[in-house]
Design brief:
DNA-binding, 2 domains, 5-stranded parallel beta sheet, Arc Repressor Mutant, subunit A, 4-stranded antiparallel beta sheet, alpha/beta, Rossmann fold
Length: 223
């Protein structure tokens, strides 16, 4: 297999490259998240470290999962239960904590391959609610044909809700997906961005609040 190894530690990367080559795999090495995103589409398997110099590997994992079903095993020093759950919920097929034996890594890779490739969920590229149009690919939002300028985080919140219109998303779920940290639920960051969405679009009903639960995409009335 052609394996993408995303690891910034040169010594570990060298050892893993040798082990993978010994088992007949061709290794492509990347030390940055941006390179992982660029190369993931051309390989058969991805081994992904989370502590990368240019960003959190979880964000890279989520972005790869939006467009690819390539098998991914997270290989990291993060041992917390919350880290493991976040990795698996973000789309990893398995989670392996450093240090580990190369024989265990090979066995886990074989197990993931045996399970087969997951189906990539069919998701709309453009979502329309009332007179609001959300283009998920181009990251453009228009209201009654007028383009609305949103911040990156405002659009990410709206896009997360728009991918499954009508589905209620919990506060921690949104914060984990957009900010990468569900503990931000103690702050008002999400509320501020939702208020910004309502104000900038002029559609207060675009994002509905369900007290004690979370948010969902509503069907706003034209003003």
């Amino acid at each position: 297999m052609r394996v993408l190894l995303v690891e910034d530690d040169d010594r570990l990367a060298s050892a893993l490259t040798t082990a993978l080559a010994r088992h007949g795999h061709q290794v492509v090495r990347a030390g940055l998240a941006v390179d992982a995103l660029r190369l993931a589409g051309g390989v058969d398997f991805v081994l992904l470290d989370l502590g990368l110099p240019d960003g959190d590997g979880l964000d890279a994992l989520r972005r790869v999962r939006q467009v690819s079903t390539v098998p991914i095993i997270v290989v990291t020093a993060r041992t917390g239960e919350r880290d493991v759950l976040r990795g698996l919920r973000s789309g990893a097929d398995d989670y392996l904590v450093k240090p580990f034996r190369t024989s265990e890594l090979m066995a886990r890779m074989e197990a993931v391959v045996r399970r087969g490739t997951r189906a990539l969920p069919a998701r709309p590229q453009v979502v329309t609610v009332g007179d609001v149009r959300v283009d998920l690919e181009s990251r453009r939002v228009t209201v009654a044909g007028r383009e609305v300028a949103l911040t990156r985080r405002e659009f990410d919140v709206l896009a997360f809700l728009a991918r499954e219109p009508g589905v209620v998303r919990g506060r921690e779920e949104i914060l984990d997906a957009v900010w990468g940290d569900p503990l931000l639920s103690a702050s008002r960051s999400l509320d501020v961005h939702v208020a910004g969405l309502r104000s900038k679009t002029g559609r207060p009903g675009l994002v509905e609040t369900l007290r004690g639960t979370g948010y969902r995409l509503g069907v706003p009335e034209p003003s």
